Amino acid sequence: MSVAQKYHDPAQLPLLDIHDHGAYRWSDPDTSIEAALQVDATVREQQVKDAVRSKGKYGATCSEIVAITGLSWNTVSPRLAPLRRKGFLYDSGQRRLGPTNRKQIVWLYREK
Questions:
Q1: Backbone dihedral region for residue 63 (phi beyond 0: left; psi -120 to 50: alpha; all else: beta)
Q2: How far apart are the first and last CA of the chain?
Q3: Which of 30, 52, 63, 108 has the maximum number of C-beta atoms within 10 A of its C-beta?
Q4: Each residue's pLDDT tens digit, 67-95
Q5: Which string of b and e fits 15-49 if b means at least 16 CB within 10 Å?
Q6: CB 105 within 8 A of CB 67
Q7: How does pLDDT run across 10-59, given as a tens digit for each residue?
Q8: What is the fold, at CATH topology level, of the domain defined by 41-109?
Q9: 89, exposed or middle or buried, with CB in 10 Å at 0-12, 13-18, 19+?
């Protein structure tokens, strides 16, 4: 039985705490849910925090964090909002062009 099939009521399948696992929505495919359960988000969050902190007052965009850490965009991007909510990162108000010529948020690290 898949993870999603264990829950008859979608309200019983909440987003997981991003501290322990990757997050998923009840409507996600079983493969996405199972993948989310295998992610150690705390390790990835630490890598993202370290990358942004290493850039000091210059900050870092998602693309720059990808280049620093060697992680994929799909791994880095979902860590930014939770780190902002937790108070570790904040939007500098600046934007820099990424490799696709689109503006990206420049993130700064906040010591806690």
A1: alpha
A2: 42
A3: 52
A4: 999 999 999 999 999 999 999 999 999 99
A5: ebebeebbbbeeebeeeebeebeebebeebbebbb
A6: no
A7: 455 444 434 345 666 767 788 877 777 777 778 999 999 999 999 999 99
A8: Arc Repressor Mutant, subunit A (1.10.10)
A9: buried
